[in-house]
Amino acid sequence: MHQGRSLKPCSPGWPSRHRFHPVTFRGDPAGPAPLRVAMPAAIAVESPAAGARPQAVDDAAAVQPTANRSSTATATVVLELPPATPPSSLTTTADSLPSADTLNVAPAAAAAATANNVVSAPSGITHAVPLAPATSETSPQDATTAASAAAAAAAAVVVTDADGGSASAGVEAAAAAAPPAPFTRVRSSPLAGGQLDVVQWREGRMLRIWTPPGYSLSDAAREPYPVLYLNDGQNLYGDMPTLSGQSWHAAEAAAGLIAGGALPPFVVVGIDHAGAMRSYDYLPYEPGTANGLRPDAAEWPGGGVDAYLRSVVDEILPYTERAYGVSSEPSLRCFGGSSFGGICALCAATRHPGVFGGLLVESPSLWFGEERMLREEMPAFPGPWPARMFLAMGTQEYSGIRSPPQPTFDSHLVALTHQLAALLESRGGLRRGEGLEVEVEEGATHTEAAWAGRLPRALGFLGRHWWRRTMARRRDQLYFTVPRKLRAGQPAVLFFNQARSAALADRPRDSIQMAYGFNVDWCVGGGTTHMMPAVGLTALRNEMAAAAQPPPPAAAAAAQDLPNIVGDATDPFDAAGASAWLQAAFTVPPEAYEMHLAFTDGAGGSWDNNAGCNFYVRVKMDLSAEQRSHPVELAMREGPAWGDVQDIAHKRSGSNYFTTPEVLVAGEPAVLYVNRRRVRGLETNPNLRLHFGFNGWQLAGQEACLKPTSLWRGEHIDWWSATMTIPPDATDLSFALTDGHGTWDNNHGNNYVCPVKSSRGAGGAVSRVEPRGVESVESMPHAAGTLHVLTLTKRQGGGAASRTNKWSEEKRLRVWTPPGFDPARPPPGGYPVLFMQDGQNMFEDWLAHQGVSWRVGYTASQLVSSGELPPFVVVAVDSAGAMRSLNYLPYPPGTGAGGFRGDAERWPGGGLEAYMSRLVEEIMPLVQQRFSVSSDPAKVAFGGGSFAGVSALYAALHYPHVFGCVLAESPSLWIAEGRFLQDMRMHRGMLPERLFLGCGTREYSATRDHEREDVDGLLLGYCQEAATILESQGMRGGRLRFLVEEGAGHHELAWQWRLTGAMRFLFSAWWDE
């Protein structure tokens, strides 16, 4: 406790089914009597073993335990607190001071925090309602909520008076306030660039799990994370939960090592101690008095370490491996603690050999039990021992926090540490500097501050060999990043293998630089940075070189009959080649969606820039809820959440317009942003007016002047805006643009349309209304999987809207699920999914309009069954028949250059953006809910052919934040006399990770009764130009596959033949997701 803090007695109440073993501390503290305050303590203990010595009770007011009670307890204890100003006499008697094994105190607070001695509660004090300790990760709202809940519980518990009578009722209310079920996540908050999850383990005890920056379960499924389990979880992260006011700052230490390239990403799991029964959990027997030097510990409990470690191995390890994807291999799993927690770590090695490959043992209280463990148990342990152990002790462990000083005892603790190290060398076969690191820090004390100071060195030693597993998968790569997927706004490290660079392999190491930038044209952030030798790999190489040296003759002779060690990494590691690896650290800008880079030797003039294409790394944008394509209804319930307008503008830089919020809500204000550079006929006109209405122009037709904004401008980007309020009964927004003098852009007569969601309820949240429902489902076996035909309900809207919907809305989905599909047990992040258009033509020949289908199900099944691709789902959306061109084209098709498509002159167009909005906001959430498919753009694909091929290219330009892979077959780029190619040239923004573009050399002639080689050449030229444009905008380095098939025409059979190769190219990366 901190000096000077006033403490109030706890409220009575809080009946418990647990058992409490009262504990008193012997000693004759000098000075005035301590203040006694009743405090709740949540305890988990084992039943006393046969022959165990009962706990002595010296306080006459203490409650005597009942002989037959349950084996666990939650009880009130009395804390003996020091006076507000410790008298000088307190500094003269060591017996009056607390043990750091129970109270870890920083040096500055040592005089004040003297004795949190725990004694049994007097009979007049009943159980109190527990309050969760305030932590650094607890928000003020969480604290208020917790306090309110505790107050409510306190008012509803049974209070027992001295005569055993019930003072009040309310058992049912108390039962309703039960703690969360085991392994329930209580809260989660960002910390040190990663995330800290607080998970309920047992009543009053938590797991505090820190995941690193860039952590993802999908990465964990591919390559499990190394993990470090630590005792005393309350002391690891925030300063507030600790009694000393100082934590280990474990998250900051881990994040710093990862960001500096010293360690690969790993997870830290803190396990809360048991409060008053901490020593019981961490010790194999009672601590004793250290030959009289620690009389305060005479009555402390011990003996529960076996049960505690069994719980760790049987409960906590399986949970973290299952829920967080941490490794189960001993070489990637460490355990540790300090003080009594360090003794517990040693017990983990001897009680559970082979489980942990590394131990962190800080300031172990080797004096406990009259040194019995060091003298008897450990010399008799046959092994195997953990392969890596970090053992540390300070030279003022006792005297640094107690008075008067005891330098003899300090020296004895250091001597015990050296004895332990010698035993590990002789019995475990560990060599200092290789598998064993021993650090005796001059002047260091028995405090969290000392352990926090040594933690980076300890982690660097214990996790150094983790690089072996990482490099075993990447030794043939030219470069890789940590984290594997860059995230906007977070730090990262890029590792470059100079030896594999044809242009730079022979250049001086200290001359290598990385030139990099973000987004199209390197327009965001970046620069040039010098690369340095990879920190972690260099340290591992040096350690392996030292290990290769022959040991001294005495050590070599002793090593002949040593037991095996466990947890040593066996992955191959090229120590000689490790010197070729260089690293560069950087921070990804918040607005970045992709990174471009090249390598150079600077003044030497040599470059490795991927043959002029530069290297490319996709950046994962952590979009806010309202920006995501999935659970749109969830975003509405959370509020309009306007988000960062500039971020949205960057994301929609290739669009004609966007709105904030991106999901318009009836009855709410909104802003429409229009890119003036993309308004046909009005690109430079300053008199830009907006005509808009709702529900098919039946409601609130209005006019507004658009005004320039302060958003970023570019060659083809100039955002103007107008504000509006959406009527409460609106279902859609329609608008057109004009200068007021006869020039219009009304989307070729179709107007621009944005859907509007339902209005908010009384509580401010939008009620969940399914925009599209499912009327019926028919399932049948198909291609070793199952084909589900979903008939959708009609969309809602006014009279005019309903008439329009009748012709243009989507009426049917065809969903193919692979063999072994289980929506209740999807892979991490959900099943990958491909959304195809023209659903009637996808699966069955008899239904396809030319009698031949794409046979998507059969192709997907073959690739999945052969193991070439992971299981994925195909969703095919039926076309709207006669109105197909309206939904699939951004404007009417016209007749093409020279009028070769006179049959298409009157076909409609211009409804593509409305179709995409319906697909993203109405159909995708429905599919995600029913079939457990992913919402991660890297695992979501969009595809189509002909007019739907244009839709696919449109999705690549305008929805790359939704679809990370795009399949465009024979896109009809002849529409509007090639206008779509002009739109592609103007695009400056994000593009998908991969795009497959296919066409034939007889796109026109193969499906007609006459030859037109000129038209065939024109159509092929359009596709070639589209590929050139995409390459110029960054689709290089293996991101774009353009396939021209000789003699192929414009029909499903050609697309069917190319589908296998397209899927292999687009979806092979799904294995990495």
Outline of this structure?
The chain is α/β, with parallel strands linked by helices and 1073 residues long.
Task: Explain this structure.
With 1073 residues, the chain is of the alpha/beta class. 25% of the residues lie in helices and 22% in strands. It contains 23 helices and 43 strands. The strands form eight sheets. It has a nine-stranded mixed sheet, sandwiched between helices. Strand 42, helix 22 and strand 43 form a beta-alpha-beta unit. The longest helix is centred in the middle third of the chain and has 22 residues. The two termini are 48 Å apart. 50% of the residues are buried. The N terminus is likely disordered. GO terms for molecular function: starch binding. It holds the Pfam family CBM53.
Can you tag this structure with a few keywords?
single chain; 1073 residues; alpha/beta; 9-stranded mixed beta sheet; elongated; disordered N terminus; Esterase-like; Ig-like_fold; Carbohydrate binding module family 25 domain-containing protein
